[in-house]
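Hi support team,

I'm filing this because I wasn't sure whether my run with magnesium ion finished correctly. The job status page said complete, but I'd like someone to confirm that the output block is well-formed before I use it downstream. Pasting the exact inputs I used:
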Amino acid sequence: MTVTLDLPSADATRAFAAALAGELRAGDLIILTGDLGAGKTTFTQGLGAALGVRGHVSSPTFIVAREHAAGVRADGTPGPGLVHVDAYRLGGLGELDALDLDSSLEESVTVVEWGAGLAEALTEDRLEIELVRPRGGPVDGTVDLEHPEVGNRVATVRGIGARWAGVDLGALLRTA
Ligand SMILES: Nc1ncnc2c1ncn2[C@@H]1O[C@H](COP(=O)(O)OP(=O)(O)O)[C@@H](O)[C@H]1O
Ligand SMILES: [Mg+2]
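And here is everything the job wrote out:
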């Protein structure tokens, strides 16, 4: 199932992540793709907040993967941990294997930024989310669409494998 939604602001992207978080559980894998500035880290921050994980979710720039311990979800129930990976810095799947994330993957929701073509081998069940920032010339003299704070994003969400076969992503994300 593929769902497309408009994200007019960073807050909308965080709300989208929060809506998804209600469905997420330990062992789930999300592969995030999109250009620099598309909102991958913003999405992951919204996810971390909704799952209630410990620590500050930030761009994993100098480290390849950051593990956030499980905490309490916004609704008061215990949440999964969060493993946040920046695959852009990985040379290949061998390096992802070398991180030895297997045990934490089972206890966490794993989000891989720039993961397309690399992280798929981790599991057959996954959510693929592509964030696209429209580019183009200014629509008028006052709007600079190249500025990261300007312009909406479009998200495409695709559930793959048995895990997502019975999940109505459209209904889930309509609340975002
Ligand atoms: N609709 C939107 N969704 C996500 N981020 C947005 C949006 N509109 C503006 N932004 C801003 O764009 C930037 C996205 O940066 P970031 O999430 O780090 O992107 P990435 O991790 O994909 O490189 C942030 O400064 C964020 O506030
Ligand atoms: Mg990022």
